[in-house]
Design brief:
By secondary structure, this protein is α/β, with parallel strands linked by helices. It contains 8 helices and 12 strands. The strands form 3 sheets. A 5-stranded parallel β-sheet has the order 2-1-3-4-5, sandwiched between helices. The chain has a 4-stranded antiparallel β-sheet with strand order 6-7-8-9, covered by helices on one side. A 3-stranded antiparallel β-sheet has the order 10-12-11. Strand 6 and strand 7 form a beta hairpin. Helix 7 packs across helix 8. The radius of gyration is 19 Å and the shape is elongated. The protein binds calcium ion. Calcium ion binds next to loops.
């Protein structure tokens, strides 16, 4: 089943270009040329993600974002014009998940979409729950079960562990983790990742010999699945 992306953009060239690329990548898309239509399509098209331009007829992108956030946590990526740094802050305050500065490269757009969807656990992972030996990471209920017992774990630690464990044995750099789990790299530095991993280790150390949260020196971290 294809994931649906709503493209809200009044410049037809940009909207169609996005549509072309996203459909080629296997997404189903719909275009809203103004803010009013965006709200309409948000309800009738039920997108999994919204690409939202700021300067729009009828209702601007911020208003659309706020309106949608009244009822939905659907991922929203804002399309901002170059140099509008205050837009980043504005976007966050209004509940956007990420932003892309125009003009953009399609490669960047796809990377951002995949990163945001991964953060939401949307891509190909319908049930947001991972199960390993003596470990259950449940992102639907934000519960961590270690050896059958519920362990209180802050949301960011849950998200970090889920992100690492979603792709076992893959090494993530600190910057990748900041970008993909925290979303905006200027909110923290790589020590943020280290601190969260350290706290996770305190909860997970020695629980099982089938997996472990490993440091890959000079690179980053991985959730390692061991043989046997
Ligand atoms: Ca525009």
């Amino acid at each position: 089943m294809a994931l649906k992306v709503l493209i809200v953009e009044d410049e037809a060239n940009i909207a169609e270009l996005l549509q072309l690329y996203l459909e080629k990548e296997g997404f189903e898309t719909s275009i809203a040329p103004d803010g009013g239509k965006a709200i309409e399509l948000f309800h009738s098209f039920a997108p999994d993600l919204i690409m939202l331009d700021i300067m729009l007829p009828v209702m601007d992108g911020w208003a659309v974002c706020r309106k949608i956030r009244e009822t939905s946590q659907v991922p929203i990526i804002m399309l901002t014009a170059k140099g509008e740094t205050s837009d980043k802050v504005n976007g966050l305050e209004n509940g956007a998940d990420d932003y892309i500065t125009k003009p953009f490269e399609m490669k960047e757009v796809l990377a951002r979409i995949h990163a945001v969807l991964r953060r939401y656990g949307t891509v190909e992972q319908k049930e947001k729950k991972l199960t390993f030996d003596k470990l259950v990471i449940n992102m639907d209920s934000y519960e961590l079960l270690v050896d059958g017992k519920r362990v209180d774990t802050p949301p960011k630690e849950m998200e970090l562990l889920y992100h690492l464990a979603s792709t076992p044995n893959r090494v993530f750099t600190r910057n990748q983790l900041l970008d993909e789990v925290w979303g905006f790299d200027y909110f923290g530095d790589s020590r943020t990742v280290d601190v969260h991993v350290k706290r996770l280790r305190e909860k997970l150390e020695g629980v099982s010999d089938k997996w472990s949260l490993k440091t890959v020196w000079g690179v980053g971290y991985k959730f390692e699945l061991l043989e046997g």
